[in-house]
Amino acid sequence: MPDRPGGGGAARFQRQVVKPKDFKGTMKRLWSYFGGDKALLSTVFLLTMVDSVILLFVPFLIGKAVDTMALTETVSFSVLNTVIVTLLVAYITSSLLNFSQGWIMAGIIGRMVKRLRRHLFGKLQKLPLAFFDSRTHGEMMSRLTNDIDNVSTSISQSITQLMSGVIILIGSLVMMLVLSPLLTLASLITIPLMFLLTKSIARKTKVLFKEQQKELGMLNGHVEEMISGLEVVKAYNYEEKSIHRFEEVNTRLREVGIKAQIWSGFLMPMMNVINNFGFMVIAVVGGYLAINELITVGLIASFITYSRQFVRPLNDLANIFNTLQSGVAGAERVFDVLDSEEEDADPENAIDLTNPKGIVEFKNVSFGYSDDALILKNISFKAEAGSSTALVGTTGAGKTTIVNLLTRFYEVSEGQILIDGIDIRNYTRESLRKCFGIVLQDTYLFSGTIMENIRYGNPEASDEEVKEAAKVANADYFINQLPKGYETKLSENGDNLSQGQKQLLAISRVLLSNPSLLILDEATSNIDTRTELYLQEALSTILQGKTSFIIAHRLNTIRHADTIMFIENGNIKEKGNHDELMAEKRAYHSLVHQQFVTPMSLPYSNS
């Protein structure tokens, strides 16, 4: 529509964390989407807590097992057997708890995401067209799919891991202090080293991965452009230059990617070195204390395990928090759409528009997509019942805007639009739009059969009624030539049909809906002359007795319109039938002359 404005370390640093603006507020809103599963979520937390507590006692039991065999002449097999059985029960119980919490959590998150996605999709149906004009379709799809998937993945992974990590971190520290404050102090010497290592590598990898994402974006953009415009690429022999450009970007991506992977790959080996250094410190200090009979060998074994449990959450918690932040940031993008202003609700006293006569009147209508730029400026006209009104003029003059206002895709800034003498804002939107049939320049067909696409105009229609509509629209002849006729499956937007065939199906759809008012927006601009003849015949059938508005650049399609309005800069410059406007020899006459007499002449003048 021309009138509209136009390894573990590597994984940790590859995630480009987008920080949420309101973490607490967004988490509170997400919590509301758990609905009746909140009590079940408490069960998951309880299972996680029990599992974490069991894991905290495992190292203690391992130490007891070691002590039954260390530094004694005889082994107490009864005690050893009891410890082994207890360990076996602990591990089995932990596995069952893990499985149970994962099973329950998967269901909870699945239902939460279902509610969120259903709410978002329902919201999209209620938003005005102005909302979509300012955003790309890809962005909206990303919020409905990628962002919600990000919320699902992040929340499901983070909640239980964060809780378990905190419990094990605190619990391990407490157990270490209980077992030996001196060994605890010795083991904590590695914490500052780990912090400094992580900080220094993160500083370097952050820059490299940001550069990698930039180069990856350039590469994806180039590939998408070359594939989308493949015909143009071949027509201008651009293949070699395209390959050369691809090689340049791909080489830069490879170089920065290698550097990023090398630096991020340093993290885990260096972490292992620091952890092993910590174990060595514990072994040396613990050995000294054991020799002096201040602690047992089993306690050293327990302590090494606790130390490992204490360090692991430190490695994971930062990544878990980043994952959670990323999910909350995705939720904010979803809530940004959910908070957008919907179409104004119908007034309480709104009435249904039924069986309209089709008298349309614009009274001093002005409109702009923004407050500081008016597209239509105080226009007034009246279309009688059953009349045809053609709108012509240059691109951007305001033709499509007129029909967008008529169907209340947008609301007027000033003035009134009346149908049968009543302001259209006093009708319900649903009943108003049911009275219109619209055929656009770019016809949209849905994935499905031809029968289903035509029936979109009237879901209650029978197969016979669908076929009759197709016959009247002159679409039946090509449909029956297809392998499966009316049951032929169409690809997305009917790309396996020609533009003319798609237009004939669109007209069939309109015929089936049997509207009282018609809008034809450049319905014949992208088709060949032969198909245009079929369309013209079909359109003449549709237009009989119906109030219609026709936007066309092919002037031969509107010569017989009852009224032709020449729109320029948001104003009606000329109005009359074809003969009257040709006799005036002004802008319309000049436009006709250019199109049929001297096609290569300059655009008309305002004289």
Q: Measured on Cα atoms, how large is the radius of gyration?
A: 36 Å
Q: Give the averaged pLDDT, no decimals.
A: 80
Residue windows where pLDDT falls under 50 for at least 5 positions: 1-17, 599-607
What is the domain total for the residues?
A: 3
- Name the structural class: alpha/beta
Sheet with most strands? 6 strands, mixed
- Can you list the strand order of the major beta sheet? 6-9-10-3-11-12
Any idea what the CATH superfamily of the largest domain is called? P-loop containing nucleotide triphosphate hydrolases
E-strand count: 12
Domain ABC transmembrane type-1: 44-326
Domain ABC transporter: 360-594
Membrane topology: Multi-pass membrane protein
Transmembrane segments: 39-62, 82-109, 162-179, 277-304
What can you see in these coordinates?
There is one protein chain. The chain has 607 residues and is an alpha/beta fold. Residues 1-17 and 599-607 have low confidence and may be disordered. It has helices at residues 8-14, 23-32, 38-67, 77-126, 129-133, 137-179, 181-187, 190-228, 230-235, 239-265, 267-291, 297-338, 399-406, 429-434, 450-455, 463-472, 476-479, 499-513, 529-543, 578-584, 587-596; strands at 360-367, 376-383, 388-393, 414-419, 422-423, 436-439, 448-449, 489-490, 517-521, 547-551, 563-568, 571-576. It has 21 helices and 12 strands. The protein has 3 domains: 22-178 and 319-341, ABC transporter transmembrane region fold (Up-down Bundle); 181-294; 360-596, P-loop containing nucleotide triphosphate hydrolases (Rossmann fold). It is 61% helix and 10% strand. The chain crosses the membrane at residues 39-62, 82-109, 162-179, 277-304. It is a multi-pass membrane protein. Residues 44-326 form the ABC transmembrane type-1 domain.
